[in-house]
Design brief:
Blueprint: H1 6-23, H2 26-30, H3 37-57, H4 62-89, H5 95-125
Length: about 130
Amino acid sequence: MKSMSGSTALALGVTALVMAFAALGGAEALGAHPWWAVRTGLVGAPIGLALYLLARMAGLAPIGRAALALAGLALALASAGFGKRRFAASLAEDALAGRFWFFGWFAVFAMTCMLLLALVSLVRRG
């Protein structure tokens, strides 16, 4: 049986850490709704791993991958924050704001995972 490369093991480890953070209450502590907070990390982190791999296969340099993930994280945090505020202000009537809050958190975990993977790649390069 072929063994896993160090890079693959590290990428899976980083993804697992992001997922564990959400599973242990990190997402809820940061502002995700308790009903779906854990799911955001368990689904979002593997999406971030896939996006990282796509960016890497597309030939994007590590610094470019980090910049892309950082920009995505900023947009995701803005989306989640905006959605939460609007949803709460509408007394749970604004469904679109609820969707921004909900999907914003999936994007937060996806971009966090992608950013961490890009930073690990930068550190490992030199």
